[in-house]
Recover the amino acids of this structure.
């Protein structure tokens, strides 16, 4: 059976005004790849989006379907809450009664034969959606008594109307020829803003880590993106990919993948812990991983990267991110949400 991969990023809509009605949906973006790690450009795909309450397999509070089209980079963009409803009412979700988990299923041929792409916790609830389903404020106090009406003042006399000034003469129309068009300036340089302030990079070569356990993270080659922020921003960083254990029989590989900012592991969230158990009938066993972190940053230049470390004292070596065209290839997505 074919296995497809989606690299995804969720963008919550913000309130356009302090007391405006918030939109009952949020943007969902992803990169679709086939089981060989290659992106699927310019292709119609079918999606089924599900929100679970409590656990990744908990109660389904909302489910909908979409038909989307990828662009030349394999990227697609839909609105969660704006699809064809299968069950539930999106506007009735009590965002204060979480945690909530977001499940993605895909049919790469654009139909309804969906394959599970994975489930991730919604780490940040949109403020506007939370506010609409949270508790109401206290009751209004009683209206105070009206003050006495003051006496009406005397009406002042009207001033005289001033005379209308005369209209000045119209100046003569200038003459002259249009100058020649100047030469085209040189092309600018810098990191490309691929789609809606989103940057996507892929692993460039394989990282192999193994016993013994380590307390430091080794950067996964190629998964580095530098971004300059001109003001306070929210930055959603996510990393996903596949890993391969080289062990056989009863050996295993235990490792973690974390998100780093300027070389430092993010303080909360953004770390995935994995353990790949081997199979006596298979020489090498694969497993996928994904994690994300929503950061609040001020103006400045930041380098975002992904690293991995071995977690167990024994076991087998694990390979991460095999480079372009490999089924192991990992990806890093950085999305800037200006405040």
């Amino acid at each position: 059976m074919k296995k497809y991969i989606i690299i995804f990023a969720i963008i919550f809509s913000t309130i356009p005004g302090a007391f405006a009605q918030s939109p009952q949906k949020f943007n969902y973006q992803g990169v679709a790849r086939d089981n060989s790690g290659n992106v699927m450009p310019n292709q119609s795909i079918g999606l089924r989006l599900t929100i679970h309450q409590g656990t990744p397999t908990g109660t389904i509070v909302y489910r909908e379907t979409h038909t989307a089209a990828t662009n030349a980079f394999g990227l697609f963009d839909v609105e969660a809450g704006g699809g064809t409803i299968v069950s539930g009412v999106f506007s009735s979700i009590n965002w204060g009664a979480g945690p909530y988990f977001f499940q993605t299923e895909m049919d790469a041929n654009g139909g309804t034969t969906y394959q599970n792409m994975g489930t991730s916790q919604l780490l940040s609830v949109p403020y506007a959606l939370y506010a609409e389903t949270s508790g109401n404020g206290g009751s209004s106090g009683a209206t105070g008594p009206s003050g006495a009406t003051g006496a009406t003042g005397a009406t002042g006399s009207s001033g005289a109307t001033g005379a209308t000034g005369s209209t000045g003469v119209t100046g003569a129309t200038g003459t002259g020829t249009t100058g020649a068009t100047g030469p085209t300036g040189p092309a600018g340089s810098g990191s490309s803003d691929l789609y809606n302030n989103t940057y996507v990079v892929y692993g460039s070569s394989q990282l192999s880590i193994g016993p013994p356990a380590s307390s430091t993270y080794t950067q996964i080659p190629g998964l580095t993106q530098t971004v300059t922020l001109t003001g306070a921003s929210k930055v959603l960083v996510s990393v996903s990919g596949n890993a391969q254990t080289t062990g056989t029989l009863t050996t295993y590989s235990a490792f973690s993948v974390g998100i780093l900012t300027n070389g430092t592991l993010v303080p909360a969230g953004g770390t995935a812990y994995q353990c790949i158990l081997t199979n006596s009938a298979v020489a090498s066993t694969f497993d996928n991983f994904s994690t994300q972190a929503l950061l609040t940053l001020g103006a400045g230049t930041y380098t975002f990267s992904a690293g991995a470390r071995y977690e167990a004292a024994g076991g087998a070596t694990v390979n991460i991110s095999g480079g372009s065209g490999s089924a192991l290839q990992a990806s890093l997505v950085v999305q800037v949400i200006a405040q």
